[in-house]
Specification:
Length: 123
């Protein structure tokens, strides 16, 4: 079973190595989708409690960056780098973490499945 939980947060950033408008400090209303996969417990009927996923994401990820400047957390806070950072903080605490999708805008997102950055994901 794959479980999906959606989060919203706000943060500012600038891309210091980008030659374009995002070089300047600006903000986004981000959307984060977290997918976890695991078997359904026959006793509870749950694969993992939604409340538990929400607690883990807030504690290990969002409390550090919501309403913050992402440049204080990462040198180059591109969406790609931010989602890899998020994965590294969440994965040790959330068994079955399968995928994270980070939307900077409604129509622009990155998807990360734990693959090594710069290497294609395994099928």
């Amino acid at each position: 079973m794959i479980l999906r939980v959606e989060f919203q947060f706000n943060a500012a950033h600038r891309l210091p190595f980008y030659e374009g408008p995002c070089f300047h400090t600006h903000g986004h209303n981000y959307k984060l989708l977290v997918f976890s996969e695991g078997p359904v417990d026959p006793a509870t009927g749950l694969s993992i409690d939604f409340v538990r996923v929400k607690e883990l994401v807030r504690t290990h990820v969002l409390d550090c960056i919501d309403h913050n400047d992402l440049n204080l957390v990462l040198e180059n806070p591109t969406a790609e780098n931010v989602v890899v950072w998020m994965w590294g903080r969440l994965q040790p605490h959330l068994d079955g973490l399968k995928e994270m999708q980070l939307y900077e805008t409604d129509d622009a997102a990155v998807i990360y499945r734990g693959e090594t950055v710069g290497q294609p994901a395994e099928a």
